[in-house]
Amino acid sequence: MRRTSGEGELKLRVGEMIMGGWSLPQTFRVTPQNVEVVAGSDVTLHCEVENQQGNAQWTKSGFALGFNRSIPGFPRYTVLGDEAASIHNLHITNVEMSDDGEFQCQVTPFGNARAIRHAANLTVLLPPTSVEIVGHTPDALITVKAGDSLTLECLIRDSKPVSRVTWYRGQEPLRLDSQDDKKETSPTDSHLSSLRSKITFTPTHSDNGLDYSCHALHPALTHSSEQLTARVTLDVQYPPGAPEITGYTEGETVSAETRKTLTCRSRGGNPLPEVFWFKNGVQIDKNFIKHRKYAVNEYEFEVQASDNLAKYECQVSNVMTSEPKIAEIQLSVHFPPSEVAINGPTEAKVGDIISISCIAENSNPPSDVNLVISGQTPPGATSRTYKVEHGGWNTVTNLTSYEVRSIGSDLTVNCYALNQALGSTKISTQVVRVLRPPDSPVIMGYEPGTLLKKGTSKRFSCISTGGNPLATLTWFKGAQELPSVTRHEAGNAIADLDIVVSESDNNAEYRCEATNSATEEPLSNSTSLSVTFPPAAVKVSSDPREVTANTETTLVCESASSNPKANVTWWRDGFEVGPGDSSVNPGQFGGFTTTYSVKVNVTAEDNGAVFTCQADNQFGTTTHDAITLSVLYPPTWVKKPEKEISVKEGSSIEVNVSAQGNPDAVTYIWRRGEEVVKADSFLNISSVTRDQTGTYTVEATNSQGTAAANLTLNIKYGATISSISGGKNLSVGDTVTLVCQVDANPDPDINWVREGYDFGRTEHKKHVSQNVVEMTLRNVTVEDTGVFICSAKNEIGEAATASTAVIVKHKPIIDKSAKYQKAAAEAGKEARLACRASGAPFVHFTWYTRENTPIEPAIYSRFDDRYSVETSQLVDGLVTYESVLLIKNVTNKDYGFFECLAHNTLGSSRTAIHLDITSRPDTPLDLKVLNFTHNSVELAWTPSFDGGLPQKYRVRYHVTGTARYQYTDVYPENVTTFIVTTLRLGTTYSFSVLAYNTKGDSEYTEQDVQATTSSTAPPTDTPPTQAPSARISGLIIIIVTLVGAALLVLNVALVACFIKRRARKRLTASSDKGSSKSTTIEMYAPSSYTGTVTGETLSSISEKSRESYTHEDSADDTPAAPRPTSCPPPPSHNDLNMDDAYDDVRRNQYNAALDRATAAGTGGYGTLGRRTTTPDHYNIPATDPHYPLPTRYNTYQPPTHAPLTAHTHSLTQNNGSLRRNAPSKLHFPKDYIRNGSMNIPVSSTSSPAGGVAGQYPPQSPTRTHPPPQPPMLSTFAPDAVQSPAGGGVPLEHRGHLAAPMVCPAAVTDRCQTPAPTLPRPPPRYDERYLLTPRQRFAAEWLRRRPAVTRDRPLN
Predict the structure, then answer these.
(1) How far is the C-alpha of 659 from the C-alpha of 35, rounded, in Å?
(2) Which of 410, 498, 506, 677 lies deepest, with the highest CB count within 10 Å?
(3) At residue 1098, what are phi and psi to the nearest 5 degrees?
(4) Other CB atoms within 10 A of residue 867 CB
(5) Which of 591, 541, 524, 601 is nearest to 564 (CA)?
(6) φ/ψ of residue 865, rounded to 5
């Protein structure tokens, strides 16, 4: 604390006073006061001291804040004021709830001055956080019915001190006795409180639309403009007012057919009501409109008579009305009569007394009705009125007695109805006809006695004159009324009758009757007709009705009625049958019938015979009918079954028979012995079995008898072996008989088979009747142990086989093949040593270490539990057992020999198995051909020792007699059978196989196996092609001949050109042996090629490849580009040093067969290179370490595993390529080029990835194993310029892609244009894939190496 000089003097004086024993007391000049402050604001607690001697500080709730005025640890607390003036005001910024409490200003004692203190309470005010009306969203609309009690609850949350509340109804404070306020402690902070206030009241319709709100009152809000309020709006539902009807005054009269509008209005109500109109209790209108304070429905209609006294009712209702409120009116309507009707007769005879009445129906008021007849008002008419519904009246005027007089016309009756109130009159009129009879009718159109012919048309007319009304005419035939139409013309009634004459008209009476209203009996006239007609039909029958073969039957024919009589005869097949008996009788319609019968003897052949009856009466037509004889006879066969049918078992047989008989309802039954097989003519047996062999009888039966036939069914089936017996646990010298029993039809050939077994000392016996074969082995030896197969085959199906074992007891014989004499594993890995031995009985194994210590479970711990022996397994199901020794975590001490002891009760055998580090695999064994087709060969081999690593296989093959090899990797990798595909028809191939693993490759199998593909391909489903037309125009023949001649001339010219160019090459070669040239290597490997292209088969391409680029036997049809005359000839396009016969006509070919003389410099010996006139050794100097080895012909050199570098070729680099003896050329390892791309391994020192040769095992692309990347087209050209010795250019920087012509130095100045470049690769090859880094390395290596002469061999 700083002190001023004046303060020092003061203290000096005070000190003197103290020394004198007196001092002034310390007092508060300004004491702290209680303060309320809103949280978040600032506050200052004042404290000033008078006569301060001690030190001043503040405390909070008993905790001293310290004498430092900045109050460390309380960043919001600061002591303000002049300390020298003893002002110690505590200032707090951004007050929080934690500041709430008691603060004391304290001064410590000093000398005789005592300590003083004074407290003040700081109350922190926290306004409420929210106000809500519980259960309702802010400004919610609350729907309530008037008269129902409503409770609103207001919650004011988290304030200090607790808030107060005021409720408002609209803008007016609401004070209710029901208000209930409760204080609650905040669940989030115990220092805060919430207030819950409830009010309960009963809303009325005046509360509708008013806001009810609660306002939070709090000291913290006193000086704030913010108001915390929650409100809701009441939607008070209440009933509407009573309806009011306007538009009609009670007692008012309305005329019918006028327009009227009735209006119903209802005021008030929440919601506004629905307003509906009803007429006599039936709703007629429900279209109403709601306004702000009322609802209205206006009903407009046209007044009808039915509205008189009708009750119109208006109903209003809403949700608050249990029953609708109703207002109603009743209309009074004036209306004229709805109808004026006349009741009376419509016709009358002269002198009749008639009654007439006139009725005016339903009018208001009643109408006056007058009756007038023919213009005069008759006397004696009376009127009366009576009431009807809807308040209307009916008026009736009656005339009960009126005599009809003869006045020569009809009577006209008029009725008049007058409504005096409306001034309207309605009239109704009716005519009464006065009736008179007509004259008798007359028939015209036929003279009685005239003959009419059936089928002619005839018209009769009936005429009647006079009468009122005119007569109605009706025609009759006998008693039957006929349809006719009466027409009236000039006072006459006429009716015509049109008929087509028929036999029924003969002697028939036609009558015409005339009637009208005045006739009591019809007036009539009639006539009778005479008609000729033929018989309409004949009726035929036989007696008896059922005719049996070889009996007599009578045919009867009776003609129908005819006029005149008919002559009847019988006919068959155009010949009359007779004589017979005839009789004539009266017939229908006044005609005559004729009956004629004949007798006939019938046989079975007469079944279906047709006999025809003919009737003729000279009318012009004859009548016929026929009868078909149905002669009953038993079935006879139409289609009999074959006597015997032979089919294969499992196939289906279908036998269909048929028989005919009468009746034709023939039933069929197939039997096998007494067993019924099928009741049908069709015998169908699906998938026949051998037990269905036998004789089947089919019977055809009808009611007249039965026919039968037999069928023998012979089921052929392939051989199956019923039983087979063998011999086990035999001792040497025993005799055993193997028995094989076969079931087959026909009898099979039965043989015993065992591969490699000598059957010369076996005895065979065959029991033909039982298909049993016995084979006896005498004096059995150990070599007899094995599986014997019984094979049985006949013409049906494949051969059936079954095996049985012969086991001769012998001591164990250990398998000492390389596969079981070696084992390999890397240090730290697990080794697996297998010991396999054959013996009987059971073979036991014991393993021994190099120290001859047995390895047994009891002493596994001696070997740190790294050694363990698996349980022995019987591996061939006979006598071969295998035991496996497992060595975990192999160490160097484990490498060496382990001994395996195999023993049983007859003896024991030992062998030593060598454990070594992993290595390349041994050559596979026993390569053989399993099968072949027209384009594939299936191979199989036995795996040898795998070097301790998973091994894979590669197949090499070539056309026998050539050395153009192709390769394919076996996939899947672990199989020992493989199918080589895409071979040519009828071609002999040689095959060999090697094994490889990550350590390297084995040798190929020593002896190739050969197979010849089939010479014909299997048939395909190609649709047949249509033969071309045999007629070809002469013009086409001429054109084809000319084109062929032109092609022949062109061929001769090209051959001559090639011969000349080859001669020029040889001439150039003799003069420029030392010159260099660029050599281009191009590999074309289309994606369809499935073989592996290596250094031995660089030129091998697929058939598709040859089709895409050049035919194998075609000439080079690419013309040479122009060049300077002084330049050497351009290189041929990728010709690979073929022999003379092919030298100038092939591309991309590989010569691996011809050992041509080298003196001419034309020999290309099985490697890639352009055909040149210079030596083909790429100018390798004799001192160069890369000069090829002087091996003979295309000798295969197995690859070594040392990396290929530029400085290690003094060693023999056997890299799997084909080499020739002398002169040799640069060769490529077989991994270098595959699928048309260069894949050249480099040394670990020069490879960017640090890889070595052999690190990338080759893998042939197949259909199931596609190549890893698209095929590539590579062009490689070594440099023609000799590099200085030790040029120092790194190998990986040497090489380039090029195809230019390089001129000799002597003529360089005369070369103006580069040599023609080769054509670009086909578009499907992407230039980005031309060379890989390994390919570029090989290209650079060849391009940069110094030139050498061909005379110096490699050291």
Answers:
(1) 133
(2) 506
(3) -60, -30
(4) 22
(5) 591
(6) 55, 25
Residues 1021-1044 pLDDT 10s: 555 444 444 444 567 788 888 888
Going by C-alpha positions, the residue among 37, 61, 70, 65 that lies closest to residue 119 is 61
Torsion, Cα 632 636 638 640, to 10 degrees, reads: 150
Q: What is the 3-state secondary structure (H, E, C) of 5-69?
A: HHHHHHHHHHHHHHHHCCCCCCEEEECCCCEEEECCCCEEECCEEECCCCCEEEEECCEECCCCC
Cα–Cα distance measured from residue 510 to residue 480, given in angstroms and rounded to the nearest whole number: 10
Between CA 598 and CA 568 the distance in angstroms is: 11
Residue of 565, 615, 563, 617 whose CA lies nearest to 590 = 563
Pull the structure tokens for residue 504: 């029924």
Give CA–CA dist 471/367, Å, rounded: 43
Encoding tokens for residue 479?
Answer: 């008693």
CA-based R_g, the chain, Å: 68
The model carries a pTM of 0.36
Supply φ then ψ for residue 1324, to 5 degrees.
Answer: -75, -10
Single out the residue of 224, 223, 162, 172 nearest to residue 196, CA to CA. 162
- The proportion of the chain whose per-residue pLDDT surpasses 70, expressed as a percent, equals 76
Distance CA 926, CA 1006 (A): 10
CA distances from 1320 to 1019, 1136, 1296 (A): 40, 19, 16
DSSP string of 376-432, one letter each residue: B--TT-EEEEEE-GGG-EEEEEEEEEEE----SS-EEEEEEEEETTTTEEEEEEEEE
Encoding tokens for residue 1152?
């691996």
Distance CA 1281, CA 1343 (A): 9
Phi, psi of 612 (to 5 degrees): -110, 135
Annotate 969-989 with b (16+ C-beta within 10 A) or e (fewer).
bbbeeeebebebebbeeeeeb
Overall average pLDDT of the 1206-1233 stretch: 39
DSSP 1209-1264: TTS----S-EE-SSS------TTTEETTEE-----TTT-TT---TTSS------SS
Residue 665: CB atoms within 10 A of its CB come to 9
- Per-residue pLDDT, 1059: 84
In order of 850, 965, 1030, the CA distances from 1190 in angstroms are 46, 22, 64
Residue 1349 has, within 13 A of its CA and on its CB side, a CA count of 5
Please name the residue that has the structure tokens 């956080």: 129
- 127 SS3 class: coil
Mean pLDDT, the chain, whole residue set:
78
Q: CB under 8 Å to 1239, separation ≥6 — which residues?
A: 1231, 1232, 1233, 1256, 1332, 1334, 1335
Supply 165's token pair: 């509340």
Residues 6+ apart with CB under 8 A from 447: none
Query: Which phi and psi (to 5°) does residue 622 adopt?
Result: -115, 155
**CB–CB of 198/103 below 8 Å?**
no
DSSP secondary structure letter of residue 872: P
pLDDT of residue 5: 43
Structure tokens at 117: 């203190």
Residue whose C-alpha is closest to residue 972's, from 558, 562, 606, 1259: 1259
What span, in angstroms and rounded, lies between the C-alpha atoms of 1342 and 1276? Answer: 9
189: helix, strand or coil: coil
Helix (H, G, I), strand (E, B) or coil at 1053: helix
For 1156, the enclosing helix (H) or strand (E) is none
Give the span between the Cα atoms of 1093 and 1107, in whole angstroms: 18
